[in-house]
Amino acid sequence: MVNTLVALRSGRKLDVQEYGARAGHPAFFFHGLIGSHHQAAYVSEQAEQAGLRIIAPNRPGVGRSEFAVRGSARDAVSDVEDVAEALGLERFSVIGISGGAPYALATLADLRQRVRTVTVISGMGPMQLRGALRGMDYRRRFFLEAGSRYPGLARRAFQRVSERYRADPERFLARLITTWSLPDQVLFRRRDVFDLFLQDLDQVFQEGIGSEGLAQELVIYRNFGFALGDLPLDQRIILWHGFSDTIVPPAMAWRLARVLPDCEAHFLPGGHFMAIDAADQIVGRLKQQLDGLTP
Fold first, then answer.
1. Which residues, in sequence order, are CB contacts of 292 under 8 Å at separation 6+?
2. Per-residue confidence in pLDDT tens, the chain, 295 aa
3. Which domains does the chain have, with CATH numbers?
4. How far apart are CA 271 and CA 250, in angstroms?
5. Is the omega angle on the peptide bond into residue 55 within 30 degrees of 0, that is, cis?
6. In 3D, which of 127, 155, 134 has the Cα closest to residue 222?
7. What's the predicted TM-score (pTM) here?
8. What distance in Å separates the CA atoms of residue 137 and residue 180, rounded to the nearest whole number?
9. Coil, strand, or helix at residue 16?
10. Can you tell me the distance from the alpha carbon of 133 to that of 33, in angstroms, rounded to the nearest whole number?
């Protein structure tokens, strides 16, 4: 792994971690909420074998990335441009997992010809899509609906979450896992998976600013800054989703598949973290696209 602190044109610093093949085809990896660049480790081994260079920036307020106020996912595209320039990248792929999906799609919206492939895993689409939240855990849905409308409420709630995490990280995560789908609960019995997510939480609540950045993320789920129907007609977007996901329900992927201009959707057994077991398929499909074997 290679870690870089990239200076952006705004003067901010962005914490960027690289995984996979150092000299391979570059792919920006946008992590979820709550999360950090550590989520790129879900596919890092397969990426290295396939010759992919995974570039995973921490969003503002996570880890060492300095905070920035954003009104939409589209506001983040300038950061992608700056990182690409710093690393000497002309064309690249984008991968968005969970809450990172809006950022992958925003990059496609603005940098169309520079984006070679688009992969969305367990992805959060615009929450106003009709029926897209059906099947979401009711507590999570209530918090999403309320927190995205009232950022102050979300900040206070996330502050309490941060305090509970810092008091006992392992107990906090163990209790959080009980609110997930059964396949996710089984997956997180693996100590390596459990510890990897603890590293995510540390980046947010110990090293990062926590509540301010998390509250802002919820607002962005209401405002991507572009219309999905305006995305390029000639760029296929590959969706991957678990049938048992209760964090971002399969209904969201079904709705995205209907409104995206060119979409290929894969529904697999598993929950929200299905990418850990499906990494071979996900990376393999991306590599097929790069090799020109399929659209």
1. none
2. 678 899 999 999 999 999 999 999 999 999 999 999 999 999 999 999 999 999 999 999 999 999 999 999 999 999 999 999 999 999 999 999 999 999 999 999 999 999 999 999 999 999 999 999 999 988 899 999 999 999 999 999 999 999 999 999 999 999 999 999 999 999 999 999 999 999 999 999 999 988 889 999 999 999 999 999 999 999 999 999 999 999 999 999 999 999 999 999 999 999 999 999 999 999 999 999 999 877 7
3. 2-290 (3.40.50.1820)
4. 9
5. no
6. 127
7. 0.97
8. 8
9. strand
10. 16
- E strand or H helix that includes residue 138: helix 138-149
**Could you identify the residue written with the tokens 């789908």?**
181
Q: How far apart are CA 7 and CA 86, in angstroms?
A: 8
- Bridge partners (DSSP) of residue 2 are 18
- Spatial neighbors of 158 by CB under 8 A, at least 6 apart, are 210, 211, 214, 215
Task: Report d(CA 161, CA 254) in Å as an integer.
Answer: 31
Task: Give the whole-angstrom CA distance, residue 56 versus residue 39.
Answer: 9
Half-sphere exposure for 4 (CA within 13 Å, toward CB): 15
Whether the Cβ atoms of residue 120 and residue 223 lie closer than 8 Å to each other: no
Token pair of 263 as six digits: 């979409």
- How many residues does this entry show for the chain? 295
d(CA 156, CA 212) in angstroms, rounded, equals 9
Rg of the chain's alpha carbons, rounded to an integer? 17
